[in-house]
Amino acid sequence: MDALFEKTKGRMEKCLDSLDRDYKAIRAGRANPGILDRITVDYYGSPTPLNQMAAISVPEPRMLMIQPWDASTLRDIEKAINTSDIGINPSNDGKCIRLAFPPLTEERRKELVKDISKRAEEAKVAVRNIRRDSFDDLKKLKKDNQITEDDQKDGEKELQKITDDYIKQVEEMEKKKEQEILSI
């Protein structure tokens, strides 16, 4: 049964990691290199993550600076940023690319908070689905006479504790991101 608990925790941990990646991609009005993690650049015919092609720094609170290691890729990087969904126009000075983050409007902040809540709810649903799958695994073990009915009940209680812990972590991540959006 411990293996079942570990498998469940591992799957729930992946849900938290996914939510964390989603939250990093949400623009909070201040420069965050994590927003570029999903951008890939066509580099000699193969899609390459931007952060593997350039140094990304934050010279000012509302600006990212991208310095490619190969200067010939500047145009390709600029094109990849323009076609991405981050909504910021890059400025290319021939040596590096600068991304200036505009301050968020109140309306945009409220939209972002709604999006954050929606993603948190999706993560909670995913965690509950994992719990359901684990409950089914426990029922299968009981049906195959590998565990007793008492073990099944104890296992369900333990799975519920694990689920409650992960849902609490999702809620904490949600509150933290909402505060980040609203406090700028």
Number of helices: 4
Reported for the largest beta sheet, the result is: 4 strands, antiparallel
Order of helices and strands: HEEEEHEEHH
- What structural class should be given to the helix and strand makeup? alpha+beta
Looking across the biggest beta sheet, what order are the strands in? Answer: 3-4-6-5
Q: What general form does the structure show?
A: elongated
Report Rg.
22 Å
Integer average pLDDT? 88
Q: Extract low-pLDDT stretches.
A: none
Helix proportion range: 55-70%
Percent strand equals 15-25%
The span between the termini is: 47 Å
Tally the beta strands.
Answer: 6
List the helices and strands and how they pair.
Blueprint: H1 2-25, E1 40-43, E2 46-49, E3 54-60, E4 63-68, H2 74-83, E5 90-92, E6 97-100, H3 106-143, H4 149-182
Antiparallel strand pairs: 1-2, 3-4, 4-6, 5-6
Helix pairs in contact: 1-3, 1-4, 3-4
